[in-house]
Write a structure and sequence with these properties.
123 residues, mainly beta, Lipocalin, 8-stranded antiparallel beta barrel, 57% strand
């Protein structure tokens, strides 16, 4: 199933929703990509796998929190939405969902990062 591209989603923690933007890349069943949360936690990298309509990945924030978050879920038959549960250890968990987006979210993310980082840094 082709889920490559941009996605818009929401996850819930303690009944409080947080929106996120994700860019997913799948090759030979391996999943990678990035997620930008609409809160102070910021950007995260993901790695995992897609088997049929099942998706599993681990989310790790780049700067804010070292704790990995495990996501699992199911992709819809048309490949345009997915939903499931997230878990941090045995203590915290909640639901999440995402829908395919036609926007180029990574271009927007790169623009945001470029505005915050002086030219020449890290190059």
């Amino acid at each position: 199933m082709d889920i490559n591209g941009s996605w818009l989603g929401t996850y819930w923690q303690n009944d409080s929703p947080t929106r996120f933007e994700a860019t997913l890349v799948v090759g030979d069943g391996s999943l990678s990509g990035s997620i930008l949360d609409d809160n102070l936690l910021g950007e995260a990298r993901i790695s995992g796998e897609v088997v049929g309509r099942s998706i599993q990945f681990t989310k790790r924030y780049l700067t804010s929190s070292p704790t990995p978050i495990d996501y699992s879920g199911t992709i819809s038959e048309d490949g345009n939405s997915m939903s499931g549960n997230w878990r941090i250890g045995q203590k915290y968990s909640g639901q999440w969902e995402a829908h395919r987006s036609n926007q180029d979210l990574m271009a927007e993310l790169r623009n945001r990062i470029a505005q915050k980082v002086p030219a020449g840094v890290g190059q």
